[in-house]
Predict the 3D structure of the following.
Amino acid sequence: MAEIKLVGDILQAARARGREWMLSVNAPHDEAILKAVTGACEEGFARALLFGDPVRIEKTAAAAGVGLGDRITIVSRPDAKEAIDESVEAVHDGRAEILVKGLVPTSSLIRALLHKELGLRSGRFLSHVAVFDAPVYNRLMLLTDAGINITPNVQRKVQIVQNAVRVARRLGMERPKVAMLAAVDTLRYPAMQATLDAALVSRIAKSGVIPDAVVEGPFALDNAISVEAAELKEKKGEVAGRADILVAPEIETGNVLYKSLQAFCGTTYASVVVGADKPVAVPSRVDSPESMLASIALACVLSG
């Protein structure tokens, strides 16, 4: 697969597959979500099952100015938990292929994903990956984990990196450069656990546990993304100033950086949870319709 250079190319890649994915959407009682879902259907690469309150869905669609055509089927599930459970079950039993988060808490969706009998367990670790156009640098970058894992230990950080590398490679990055982020890029402050973890993950990666990628750290953010900053601070290595993947030390850092991209930069990004049997599109309720559509397209491209 040719490398995808920008988020807008993900939509083109989904269209280019020449197929339709069945989406399973829970509680789509939001104008932006319905615009994104109907957009995917209009682009020709999706059909959709909407699990929720039919009255709310139709009123929301009318307010959003979108039509629910013959590519979309509403399944009456007014109760939020039932909507979540059946949307996950629809993917589990093959009625749908891509799960899309609607107006529900991420924690509730994850619980359903991990259900022993009807969930989407794969035996791998779940993590959140965001793909975005880097402001100023005009290229594709990844950020993880901004939505699932609160304070991952070293072992889990290795798995988070592995998941992100899989996504990057599916997007055409042959040997992605991974920066383990921290507040500083030295090991002089033992109280900063993030720096120690970053160094350990980098060392583990060099043993072959994370092939087809370069993992280095700790990095302060500027040294990870700016060649000029890295040179000024004499930060050496393949990743310095050239990171493709940013790995946050914990969820607070990842989430603030993730939301800052849109709040301050107006960045369009795509957001998925990976590690389940199928990738899950997990747009935030404050995402733009364009970002939500990109999330759906990314999940489709990653599903094969």
About this structure: The chain has eleven helices and eleven strands. The longest strand covers residues 46-52. Residues 198 and 266 are 29 Å apart (CA to CA). The chain has two domains: 7-122+276-303, 127-262.
